[in-house]
Amino acid sequence: MDNENEEKNVDLRPVTKIIVSYVGHHTLAPDQLPALITSVQQTLRELGKPAPAATPRTPAVPVRRSVQRDHVVCLECGFRGKTLRRHLGTRHGLQTAEYLRRWELPSDHPLTAPAYSEHRSTMAKELGLGRKRSRPRGRGRRAKG
Questions:
Q1: Sign of the C-alpha dihedral computed for residues 109, 115, 118 and 123 taken in this order
Q2: Does the structure show a pLDDT above 50 at 1?
Q3: Residues forming a β-bridge with 83
Q4: Are the beta carbons of 59 and 103 closer than 8 angstroms?
Q5: What are the tens digits of pLDDT across the range 75-96?
Q6: At what angle do helices 33-46 and 12-25 cross, to 10 degrees?
Q7: What DSSP line would sit under 85-109, residue for residue?
Q8: What is the DSSP string of 57-82?
Q9: In whole angstroms, how far apart are CA 44 and each of 18, 104, 137?
Q10: For 63-127, which CATH class?
Q11: What is each CA distance from 35 to 3, 17, 42, 132, in whole angstroms?
Q12: Would you call 67 exposed, middle or buried from its count of C-beta atoms within 10 A (0-12, 13-18, 19+)?
């Protein structure tokens, strides 16, 4: 009985404005209309109420085992790879900072396998990256004149 009174006390003007706007921009089958109205009413009724407490997340693997020498493991789904940056963005829609915050990891937590980082570093040093360019020795500065 309280449900009926509560539904009657809901102001229908915002509900009708939302429904009219939505139906004006979207194609909707007639049998979907009652579910849409109920959904909008329920959502408006829940505005201002505190959000339900989030359930604690359980990682796919223990955090201590998520970083191995040759791979890192995603705590969301258990994916193993050399690096997690692209995986997090494409599979979970997360930036690295969001992922670290979500799992309460320190900002220096590795998202790249240590062996992979060492390999890339060695390769970059062999190519001479990260060093200041030296001028070619055969040529001197041209005198202005």
A1: negative
A2: no
A3: 112
A4: yes
A5: 999 999 999 999 999 999 999 9
A6: 130
A7: HHHIIIII---HHHHHHHTT--TT-
A8: P--SS-GGGSB-SS-EE-TTT--EES
A9: 10, 33, 75
A10: mainly alpha
A11: 17, 16, 10, 66
A12: middle
Report yes or no: 10 and 46 within 8 Å, Cβ to Cβ: no
* Whole-number Å distance between alpha carbons of 91 and 45: 34
pLDDT(5) > 50: no
- Structural tokens at position 25: 């921009």
pTM: predicted TM-score of the whole model, two decimal places:
0.55
92, 76 contact by CB (below 8 A)? yes
Q: Which of 98, 122, 130, 127 is CA-nearest to residue 111?
A: 98
Would you place residue 55 in the very low, low, confident or very high pLDDT band (cuts 50, 70, 90)? confident
